[in-house]
């Protein structure tokens, strides 16, 4: 099998000691997939591994990839994503995806963190209170997207304006 050295090493860092059963059942697929995902994609740009794994977790939330999220969560920890950062990714997804879509991921996160010996609940990370969270959220949007976001929470059709408010507020 022609899986590259880089792909093998990257896979081993993600999943130490794990040997996929696909090597037996789907060897052609796994050769192409591993070389693509763990060599071509991982080596494509200068994105650091921690940031890459944060993006992977967020993407899996968005596409409802619960099984793959469960598999990738320990790998994200192996690449330096902290439990606090993982929880924040999951918590922030609620405002965009809804609790019905995020709840399974919160359960998976708690399960994996507990299996890894991480005590829950994690220490509080709150930096806002009910009285100032919308203002702080607006400032975060301005910091990320620019000054045009300053009053974005007030914009849009009246029947859906509350969505922009909730996004800033959360």
Approximate shape: elongated
What class would the helix/strand composition place it in?
mainly alpha
How many separate helices?
9
How would you sum up the major sheet? none
How is the CATH topology of the largest domain named? AhpD-like
**CATH architecture grouping of the largest domain:** Up-down Bundle
Radius of gyration: 19 Å
How many domains? The number is: 2
Mean pLDDT: 95
Oligomer state equals single chain
Helix content: 55-70%
Number of strands: 0
Offer a few descriptive terms.
AhpD-like, 9 helices, elongated, mainly alpha, 2 domains, 170 residues
Walkthrough of the structure:
This protein is mostly helical and 170 residues long. It has two domains: 5-115, AhpD-like (Up-down Bundle), CATH 1.20.1290.10; 133-169, no CATH class. It contains nine helices and no strands. α4 (49-62) runs antiparallel to α5, α5 (66-78) crosses α7 (99-115) and α6 packs antiparallel against α7. The model has no long low-confidence stretch (mean pLDDT 95).
Question: Would you spell out the secondary-structure blueprint of this structure?
Answer:
Elements: H1 5-14, H2 22-25, H3 27-41, H4 49-62, H5 66-78, H6 83-97, H7 99-115, H8 133-145, H9 161-169
Helix pairs in contact: 1-3, 4-5, 4-6, 5-7, 6-7, 8-9
Give a nutshell description of this structure:
With 170 residues, the chain is mainly alpha-helical. It has 9 helices and no strands. The radius of gyration is 19 Å and the shape is elongated.
